[in-house]
Amino acid sequence: MTKAGAFRAALDASAYSVRRAWAYSPRWLLKSIVAYLVLAVTPAAQVLAVSWLAHTSGGTAREYVPPLVALTALLGVGQVMDQNSNMIGQRTENRLRTHYQDELMRTVAALPPQRVGLAQTSATIQGCRSSLHDLGRLVTSVVASVGALVTAAALCVTVWRISPVAGVLVVAALLPNLLVFAWEARMQDEAFVPYGEWERRTEYAVEQLVSQRTATELATLGSGVVVAEVADARRRTADAIIDRILVLLTRSGTVSGGGTAILLGGALAGVVVGGSGGAGIAAGIVGVLSGVAATRSAGFSFGRLISFAPKVRAYRQFVESVSPSVDTQIRADAESVSARRLTVTYPGSDVPAIRDLSVSAEKGQIIALVGVNGAGKTTAINTILGLLEPDSGAVTVDGVDATALPLAARLGYFGLLTQEFGRYEFTVRDTIRIGRPDGKATDDEIWQALDSAHAGDFVRRLNDGLDAQLGSQFGGVGLSGGQWQRLALARIYLRGAPIWILDEPTSAIDAEAEQQIFAELQRTKSDRITIVVSHRAWTLKGMDHIYVLEEGRVVEHGTYEQLISQQRRFAQIFAEQVA
Ligand SMILES: Nc1ncnc2c1ncn2[C@@H]1O[C@H](COP(=O)(O)OP(=O)(O)OP(=O)(O)O)[C@@H](O)[C@H]1O
Questions:
Q1: Ligand 1 neighbourhood includes 352 CB (under 6 angstroms)
Q2: ABC transporter domain spans which residues (predicted)?
Q3: Ligand 1 centre distance from Cα of residue 503 (Å)
């Protein structure tokens, strides 16, 4: 970015932050403006008061007391407002930071599933998260910058009356800082993305050391230190990026400091040479010395504006790139779902993961997709859901092409239980009500869902019932893998969507509970369409139809008995289990 570009970006960012602050908290913005403006005109008023006082030198008490009182009052105002503007500024910043954080989290929550988990999305979110503090501070920097300009202009006018050259030089002394800060901003802009990426990688590694599941595995293996080393190496890479910037900032600070000193020295010389007598010199010197503080504060505030601008741009781009979440509405009913001749190729791969794949199911049926690892079951499911776009073929729900529906509406047909189900360490109630997009559920509904998923009994044994905190890292109760999976299944029961997709819903659950869970699924199947992925032969016995996938194709389909009697791929895969 050029210097002009950096200034333009800073202006854009400033306008954005003021608009946002005005919309969110006009009262606090006004308070900040008043505090900083009072502070801004105080130095010029002090120059006038000093000049007035100096003119009364050798006069009577009646002459020198009023300017003395005025000067003292101004010093007091300066002190008080300095403190007050800081406090008001900080409170404004805190409010705005919370507001931006809330907006960011809602934006992340509204991300379409296809964007979730992409490397670029995660890096951007991480970058935005680490910018929240600066975003909150931006508006006070704008107000402080305007204040600094007002200070400089007022000083220029008052010092001009003593020495025009000095008046000009007091303002010119702002320039070195502004130019250097614009250059620094360009450097920071370039470093922002790689730094965000390395910070994200570091956090990921640290998270593995801290989060209960991985920390336990690492502690057992005794190899946590390996991950600590990975985290350390990543942190060093991130630090090296910042370090390079800091070296540049130190050098540029020296250059701008020297330039400012020379210009203010010139202003002092102007005052001494051109100052009209002792009073003028005294007032001029006060003006120039106030200029030192104003220059520093202007440089600091402008620097913030310029260096925050890229972060604001990245934040805005991200927030505006996500359409406000269209609330997913759970559909009441679906009579049929069908995938016809789906072919899907992942980006970067030349071999389709599924080819010409057709499956269909009707209300009241439970169908199964089976096949060895990598056969294409998950790909098929994700395409039916709309998370993957097929190269060819179509998915229809009740005979209507599903691509005609916005994704949120399409997802309203489905309840999906994946193998990577979440282990949300919240209260039981919060963990279950996540199943519904609006999060609303009565306790009765939650208990019903828990019972259907065979999780009711162990939840009843918890001291706090639905209010029990889950997860030992928060002092809550630790659960077994199977118990977590039952809670995930309870979410699907609570959701009550018309099409359920259950990817190995009982993989972590003991045989007895597995039987009960499948019996329950069979008992309630008339309410919905159920698609199950399963690797356990016995669970497939009651299925209405089974599709056998092999290298992305359906190579066989039929009922359990038909497939066993055909003695082809299905019988081969499950040979050991049915023996
Ligand atoms: N994100 C991806 N990018 C590229 N290829 C992928 C991706 N996900 C899966 N594949 C490939 O697509 C093929 C089908 O994978 P898929 O995950 O659908 O199999 P699966 O039957 O669900 O396997 P499993 O039983 O292990 O869950 C595999 O060859 C896999 O390597």
A1: no
A2: 339-576
A3: 13
- Per-residue pLDDT band at 281 (split at 50, 70, 90): confident
Give me the DSSP letters along 411-431. Answer: HTTEEEE-TT-----SBHHHH
- The answer, yes or no, to whether ipTM is higher than 0.85 is yes
Asked whether 377 lines ligand 1 (CB < 6 A), one says yes
Domains of the chain in start order, with CATH, are: 3-321 (1.20.1560.10), 326-413+498-579 (3.40.50.300), 421-496 (3.40.50.300)
pLDDT for the residue 276 = 63
Nearest-angstrom CA–CA distance, 274 and 280 = 9
Q: Is 371 in the pocket of ligand 1 (CB under 6 A)?
A: yes
What is the distance, to the nearest Å, from the Cα of residue 493 to the centroid of all Cα atoms in its chain?
Answer: 30
Ligand 1 atom nearest 379 alpha carbon: 18
Q: Which of 346, 349, 383 to mutate to test the pocket of ligand 1 (most atoms within 8 A of CB)?
A: 346
The closest alpha carbon to 468, from 453, 437, 446, belongs to 446
Residue where the block lists tokens 């389909």: 557
> Is the distance from the beta carbon of residue 250 to the nearest atom of ligand 1 less than 6 Å?
no
pTM: 0.72
Residue 490 in this model has a pLDDT that exceeds 70: yes
Taking residue 55's Cβ as centre, other Cβ atoms within 10 Å add up to 18
Q: Does the CB atom of residue 2 touch ligand 1 within 6 A?
A: no
How many C-beta neighbours within 10 Å does residue 431 have? 26
Q: What is the pLDDT of residue 104?
A: 94
> At which residue do the structure tokens 């399409």 appear?
410
Distance CA 150, CA 270 (A): 22
Closest CA to 393 of 344, 340, 345: 340
